[in-house]
Amino acid sequence: MTKEELWQAVLAQIQLNISPANFATWFKNTEIISKEEYQVMVSAPNSFAKEWLEQKYGKAILKILHSLDGEVKEVKYMVGKAGLKIFKKALAPSLSEVGQLEFQEFKIDKETNLNPRYTFENFVVGPFNELPHAAAWAVSKNPGFVYNPLFVYGGVGLGKTHLLQAIGNEVTKETPKKKVKYIPSEKFTAGVVTAIRNREVESFKSKYRLIDVLILDDVQFLAGKEKTQEEFFHTFNYLYEKNKQIVLSSDRPPKAIPALAERLRSRFEGGMIADIGYPDYETRIAILKTKSQERKIELPEDVLNYIATNIQRNIRELEGALNRLSAYQKLQNQAPSLEIAKSLLKNLILSPAKVVTPKKILQAVAEFYDLKERDLLSSSRRKEIVRPRQIAMYLLREDLKSSYPFIGRRFGGKDHTTAIHSHEKIVRELEGSESLNDEINLIRQRIFSG
Ligand code: ADP
Ligand code: MG
User: Fold this and answer.
1) 214: phi > 0 → left, psi -120 to 50 → alpha, else beta; which?
2) Which of 148, 268, 276, 366 has its CA at a distance of 20 to 30 angstroms from the CA of residue 342?
3) Alpha carbon separation from 233 to 46, 67, 230, 260, 355 (Å, rounded)
4) What residues have a C-beta under 5 A from ligand 2, the ion?
């Protein structure tokens, strides 16, 4: 048996014993990397999957492997790259996966955190983003002196991060000695938390004070993080007074960010506020054409028209559609016809409005943690149950905007303070834990795809 066959045989057995969703989550893009004497090395697509395989399925995997090949006595796990093979699998990759694969060759700069793929050159301008684009361009040409701060807001996937990073990349290109730093707000928050815990607040502060252009992405995530807001307020003032540039983005205008300290809100509103709207049809076509060129593919007009007509509110999804078709084209060596494009994009375009319900959230959480829904509703204090329950409550609050009393009732008649406590606990933990963030996003994928 080759190692590929061996792993296929293992997967076949595992598949019989776990739910399809769990199988897809944990075993997709796994493979045997090497087999030497008694040891087998299995690769997983990310560290989170690696841990789960090790801890939750490790015993079963070893047992099956050993039964297939008596030599095998030990299984090791590592994080490997997902590889382009993904396209050949029956399981269609999620759009974000394809998006990432397409751009893996870009390296994020360690100093600035900038991704060189985001530039002004490949940023398509149309009526929907003309103003933020013009402001961003002006800022990049004269940082600190035109619009300070520049605050860009708009819905998901509409180009905020791209535009913000383009400013940073442009400044770095023009004046390499200027210190530019791009940082997502969650990272900034995590930095504050760590600094406080390690008593390094002073060095944290001074690090940020050397910056010429500070770019803070998705500041809506500062909502309710009082300590972080306070730190950022001081940093902001310091930089502002020294005529250093500050650029911010958010999914909503400053006045709509809840639990934002008034003094910070008024700072955010003190410069230029520019919003990105939805691209019109012509711009959507222009974006598709630009990005086809980048990918060195050419799609028939009717296919472009089909995508632009059916995806209207998210440029990331336009790109995702293109990536799927581009993968097809590269594998088949021919452009997809309209009919093929329709079938390739079926679950992206035709999916009916995805309705999320408390029931769906409960199901997804229970399934993810191998629990019964009634465990989540019970009053058990067992650790394996308490935490998933808190996460489920968190999701009800975050994604459904359920009230605390409603959440309490939905979970077997608990008090609303239990719901508040659970939500807060997870929010706090998320500030310091990337892996919890990944974990919750995996659950979300199930909620939104199921
Ligand atoms: P946001 O931060 O608003 O969620 P992103 O900046 O991450 O959105 O954009 C999502 C994807 O769409 C990125 O791959 C980005 O390069 C692309 N994109 C967004 N706006 C444009 C644009 N005007 N021209 C070209 N590509 C764009
Ligand atoms: Mg973004």
Assistant:
1) beta
2) 276
3) 35, 61, 5, 11, 39
4) 160-161
Give the integer Cα–Cα distance in Å for 1 and 321: 38
CB distance 410 to ligand 1 below 6 Å: no
CATH of domain 356-447: 1.10.1750.10
How many other C-beta atoms are found inside a 10 Å radius of the C-beta of residue 364? Answer: 23
Q: Which residue ranges make up each domain of the chain?
A: 1-77, 118-273, 281-348, 356-447
CB-neighbour burial class of residue 418 (10 A; exposed 0-12, middle 13-18, buried 19+): middle
User: pLDDT tens for residues 315-345?
Assistant: 999 998 998 898 888 878 889 999 999 988 8
Residue 316 beta carbon below 6 angstroms from any ligand 1 atom: yes
First to last CA, the chain: 36
The protein residue whose alpha carbon is closest to atom 19 in ligand 1 is: 159
* H or E stretch covering 154: strand 150-154
Check whether 159 is labelled as a binding-site residue.
Answer: yes
pLDDT digits (tens, 9 = 90+) for 307-318: 999 998 889 999
State pTM to two decimals.
0.61
CATH fold for the domain made of 1-77: GMP Synthetase; Chain A, domain 3 (3.30.300)
pLDDT score for 81: 56
Query: Would you identify the CATH topology of the domain 281-348?
Result: Helicase, Ruva Protein; domain 3 (1.10.8)
- Ligand 1 pocket check for 275: Cβ under 6 Å: no
CB 34 within 8 A of CB 41: yes
Domain 118-273 sits in CATH at 3.40.50.300
Question: Measuring CA to CA, which residue among 123, 163, 174, 116 is closest to residue 272?
Answer: 163
Distance CA 450, CA 29 (A): 20
| Average pLDDT taken over every residue of the chain | 88
What average pLDDT does this structure show over 219-227?
93
- Give the residue, out of 162, 167, 284, 291, with the most ligand 1 atoms within 8 A of its beta carbon, to mutate for a pocket test: 162
